Amino acid sequence: MSLSEFAKADLSKILEELTTDEAISLIAGVGFWHTCAIERLGIPAIKVSDGPNGVRGNHFLMSTPAKVLLSSTAMGATLDPELLHTIGLKLLAPEARLKAASLVLAPTCNIQRNPLGGRSFESFSEDPYLSGILASAYIKGLQDGGIGATIKHFCANDKEDERFSYDSVVSDRALREIYMMPFMLAQKYAQPWAIMTAYNRLNGIHVAEDPHMLQDIVRKEWGFDGIFMSDWTGTYSVDAGINAGVDLEMPGVNKWRTLDLTNRCINARKVTVRTIKERALQVLKVVQKCAREAPEVLDGDGEERTHESEEDTALLREVASESIVLLKNDNGVLPIDKSKVKKVAIVGGNAKAVILSGGGSAALKPSYFISPYDGIVNALGEGVEVTYSEGARAFLTLPTLEWDLTTEKNQGARGWVAQWYPHESDDSVKPLDTPIATQFFDETKLLVCTSYPKGITRKWTMKLRGFLKPKTYGIDFEFGLIAAGRAKLWVDGNLVIDNWSRQRRGDYFFGFGSVEERGVYRLQANQSHEVYVEFCNVRAPADGDEDEMVLDFNAGLRLGGAEVRDSDDLMNQAVKLSGEADVVIAVVGLNSDFETEGHDRKTLALPGRTDELIQKVAEVNKNTIVVTQAGSAITMPWVDAVPGIVHAWYLGNMTGDAIAQVLLGDVNPAGRLSLTFPKRLEDVPSFASFSLENGKVRYSEDLMVGYKHYHKTGIKPLFNFCHGLSYTTFQYSNLALSGVTYAEGDIRLTATLTLTNTGSIMGSEAVQLYVTLPPAAGCTHPPLQLKAFKKVKGLKAGASVEVVLDLDKYAVSYWDEKHSTWNVDRGIYTVRVGGSSAKEALVLSGQFEVSKPFTWNGL
């Protein structure tokens, strides 16, 4: 059967022809990224690929360069569904085709319950309605481009520590109204082809083994007809997951659903052939959809490619700049008028660093990158003198060295060369004398997941060699070595780091890596120094863990380094340069070491002495502008000391250009915070219940997540949800509410208002509508809930526009735990409209009455 014939085939007939073993093969992956092909019946394999802010392709090691998009929190900050549809259609879908992938593992649609969550940057918002509407637009754009979306991680997967085992204890109402709502809206408006189940337990049961969640709610209640896919290694049994409704176990490495184990479960009557074929049918439906919507992906050569165009570059720049949030702008310090500025000091640990996104499966290898420093310098032009100082170190692990190493002593390509050695036997950690492959690497963070040379043994060794040449002066250089496996570093034949004999366990490489071990070596001026690393994929013993595990699909090595600098000297240099400048731009924040899959942050503070740097710089220059980079909330103890603050999230390839456009006024900032920034960690709604208690995470804040908590308690945050300033001003007026009309199991209502640009330049505004439900007996409602929003773009100075916001049953419903239904009560509902969730920003208000109460289920 040809691919075109399979695309039109009757799947019920194919299902009848499947043998039991073939059906079992279809419901588990092959390798790391593929489904199983059944050539006898013409069933093709499809490839899936990460992820939320770009499409990686098959390889973690020497991956194909990718277009790196802004983080999901930055996408959330646009409040612009049209823009997210464009991202899916114009950037992600074509990129997936270039990577030969039919299904993208995105979007991530969990809730920003606590900014300490390691993957907070991957999800859109703390608000379920905003998250669901934006996820729907993202999915629809991607699938309109013929590529399937996999919304994840279902459900209540809002932290990373002990992520395979912790139990999210959530009330049924909070689960429905907060944590399931984004997935529910995505199913209503976009119908994703796949849903990925989360690692964690939910109310005592692993989600991947919960038939009530997967079958009763999502399939029967919501009408989902795609596949349930496990997260990678997020399957914990054979029969429980199959019976619960997980159609596809991923990956196909070290899987549970082998022919042997699954047939044993069939023989023990723990699972039936009928159930297995039901799961196989769901997989077939999606494979057929991929064959129908993008046959050229399945019919191609399978090679991964990259492509750049001026159109794509312009769009990447646009989407990045649209997300940037102007948090503070006292005395009109922004935008910078470069005609009036002669000298600018750029300080901060993030200014020149390569910071594109958070870490983990969202991390990508960029096709190119523009740093904040380069973007600002280029935008200022030759007429402005720019000075620079790092000021305060901001990294957790030492920066990688791919831009510093060369393959030969005095010249050569950027990078280093590795030789692969098989071992004498599976019991030996001794390599053979002759390498079986030689490979060039232009990266010094190596995750060896799917990319092995032919003939490699289960245990193997890699020997890497490159050359490092300092600048014109001799320096003490500190190296850092992390290994998921074991490694040693020599420089000029001298052992500098031993991470081989015995290790300290760490969080790196998805929890399999060691702590970074460091060593210092003196580099001589104008001399190339040989850097040599020996690395083996067998972990060394550690205190409390003597297991020498063979890492057969998650071995990793990371080599970093930096010049040894006295922290006081760095600080003093930055302060001196700042005092001599007309304007200071401090670029500070986090990076993928702090915000990453696999572990949670421990603090909201900026790293090291960053806060001290900003305070001291502000003392010597009243025109200090702070640009912060972080995928989630951070604290700002210096907020009152500086006149200008811009939050820039993680912005991908075009980071520097997008930041420069906003700072210099080429783009009028229109981003709005997609989550609340608290003054201190103790103010976060889940502060007292984010940590594990005997393996349980108790969602004790219940419905009061994010801004709802701050309104309920009266605690004033640092910056409110959806806060964001502009270089122009807007006036809201003439709010009018239509009467409520009733349809079967639904209502319709519109809110109309006038928005006027009262400033002197064109600008964009995110109009937001919040609803307050009437009191209900024995039931507490959040004080305000976002229920509609609209991005008004490019409104000219002095111009007005009528804004219409539509409301339906979702705006007036709450979950009734007693009867397991959605309730719409009779009563008076209050509407508030404005430019952020802050009470003072909600300048318009009105009321409408629901006179006919009703209940509903489904979508």
UniProtKB/TrEMBL annotation:
Origin: domain of life: Eukaryota
InterPro entries xrefs: Cellulose_deg_GH3, Fn3-like, GH, Glyco_hydro_3_C, Glyco_hydro_3_C_sf, Glyco_hydro_3_N, Glyco_hydro_3_N_sf, Ig-like_fold
PA14 domain mapped to chain residues: 411-575
GO terms for biological process, alphabetical: glucan catabolic process
EC assignment: 3.2.1.21
Reaction it catalyzes: Hydrolysis of terminal, non-reducing beta-D-glucosyl residues with release of beta-D-glucose
Keywords: Glycosidase, Hydrolase
A GO molecular-function descriptor: beta-glucosidase activity
Family of this protein: Belongs to the glycosyl hydrolase 3 family.
Name of the featured protein: beta-glucosidase
